Amino acid sequence: MSHCRGSKNLLKAVSLSGLLCLMPRVALADAGVPMLIVMMPTMAASLLPIILIEAYILKSRLNLTTKSAISSSALANIFSTFVGVPFTWLVLVIAEHSSGSNSGFYKVDTLSDIFSVAILQAPWLPPLQDSSHFWMVPIAMLVLLVPFFFISWYAEYRVIRKINPALDPAAIKAAARTANLVTYALLALYPVWLYTVKY
Fold first, then answer.
1. Distances, alpha carbon 92 to alpha carbons 34, 82, 99, 119, 160, in Å
2. Which of 8, 55, 102, 122 could cross-link with 140 by S-S, CB 3.0 to 4.6 Å?
3. 99, exposed or middle or buried, with CB in 10 Å at 0-12, 13-18, 19+?
4. What is the count of structural domains for the chain?
5. pTM of this prediction exceeds 0.85
6. Selection from 33, 26, 198, 197 nearest residue 122 by Cα
7. DSSP label at residue 129
């Protein structure tokens, strides 16, 4: 019963993520697009495979038992996904609002303009009322994966080190970096696919 409920919740999370990403004009046309709402369902739905992939890397790099690797990966990823990522997004939103970058669309006449908009307005996109601006959603996702990677690396390093105090901190840091490079590269495939299919 609980397994069935969990499967339904996972399906709902994936569906919600897809709807928000594919139809931002419907879901968030008036208030803009807080990208955490768009990205979090996908990251949460990907949590189990990410835990397993990173556990495999931690086991091989740190010589952990399978049980220890899975528990370390699970705790580290739960913390980074539900604490580290939202905190980082909030800091980025505050920075965006404080700098006035959220005041409206910038011109997007050149490739340089496009990258400027994607970087400056990625945390909370302005209202997407013109179909010519919908490319900003997958681009913003890719941009945000960069700071999310760094906070996840740091947060997971701290959690794994706390769980395994006997391990070499430098080895933990290197293993956490490798694990996050792999899983964030996989996460980046989704916005790339979304951009390719939709645009």
1. 11, 16, 11, 11, 26
2. 122
3. exposed
4. 1
5. no
6. 33
7. -
Q: Is 128 helix (H, G, I), strand (E, B) or coil?
A: coil
Are 119 and 143 in contact, with CB atoms under 8 Å apart?
A: yes
Give the pLDDT confidence of 84-135 residue by residue, as tens digits.
999 999 999 998 888 765 555 555 566 676 667 777 889 988 776 566 667 7
Compute the distance between CA of residue 27 and CA of residue 152 in angstroms, rounded to an integer. Answer: 28
Over residues 16-26, mean pLDDT: 43
- How far is Cα 13 from Cα 37, in angstroms, rounded to an integer? 11
In terms of Cβ atoms closer than 10 Å to its own Cβ (0-12, 13-18, 19+), residue 8 is exposed
Give the DSSP H/E element, type plus range, for residue 134.
none
Q: What length does the chain have?
A: 199
Domain that holds residue 134: 2-198
Instruction: Give the model confidence (pLDDT) of 23-56 as tens digits.
Output: 444 344 456 789 999 999 999 999 999 999 999 9
DSSP 3-state assignment of 124? strand
Buried b (16+ CB within 10 A) or exposed e, 110-120: eeeebeebbeb
Residue 103, SS3 per DSSP: coil
Rounded Cα–Cα distance for residues 108 and 87 (Å): 29
Residue 80: closest CA among 195, 178, 176, 185: 176
Contacts of 1 (CB under 8 A, 6+ apart): none
Q: Residues 193, 96, 176, 51: is their CA dihedral positive or negative? A: negative
